């Protein structure tokens, strides 16, 4: 007769549940994999399948029962780690959205918005297009696989334990948020500068020949100039996205290292 002791059952549960929580938290918070259009059952199934592969390689788990105070604290730690790592990659796509907002504002399309199901908020039309390009590039570059591989590597840098996560990791995550503005402006800079020159030229033309009625044609000129420049940027935009994704994957490792509890 096959019998299972409580110690064996607890060992199986902890070996699966704790890594599963970290992986599922990342999938829920990460771009593409955490998109609302992806069914919840698919996310849970992907997290469970990944856990079944990863769990046997993690070694011994802390000696704590699943539903004890220590076990629940370990569960909360794994959830926080997964959310933090997923948020790192979300900020990469926030860079693209920021660039689209800046470009749309310069083109006069700031009022043209769509409802973004991922962010649950309105997003400009240019941001939606750039986000679509970024998502396709992310899949083409196997960013989703690199992201999961980076997560699996964190089980070595941040082992499963009940220790309090280190503060430098959260500070590094906050500092990574500043990249949104610098990189977003860098991506949008060619279009923003060209549109600034266009608007200055239209302003000078309006002063030189007021009878032209520059306010009637100015909007069409800035939109056409912005769309043309955006189209010309596409060949150089994809390599820029690749560098952003690589930076995000590397930042995941650095944040995980900084979150490692002391001792």
From TrEMBL:
Q: What is its main location?
A: membrane
Task: Kindly give the Pfam families that the UniProt entry links to this protein.
Answer: Bac_export_1 (PF01311)
Q: In which domain of life is the source organism classified?
A: Bacteria
Query: How would you describe this protein's topology in the membrane?
Result: Multi-pass membrane protein
**Subcellular location as annotated:** Cell membrane; Bacterial flagellum basal body
Q: Which UniProt keywords apply?
A: Bacterial flagellum, Cell membrane, Cell projection, Cilium, Flagellum, Membrane, Transmembrane, Transmembrane helix
Residue ranges spanning the membrane: these are: 12-34, 46-67, 79-112, 124-141, 147-167, 179-202, 214-234
Is Transmembrane helix given among the entry's keywords?
yes
A GO CC annotation recorded here is: bacterial-type flagellum basal body
Does Transmembrane helix appear among the keywords?
yes
| GO biological process assignments | bacterial-type flagellum assembly; protein targeting
NCBIfam families hit by this protein: fliR (TIGR01400)
The task this protein performs is described as: Role in flagellar biosynthesis.
What family classification does the UniProt entry report for this protein? Answer: Belongs to the FliR/MopE/SpaR family.
What protein does this entry describe? Flagellar biosynthetic protein FliR
Protein species of origin: Paraburkholderia dinghuensis
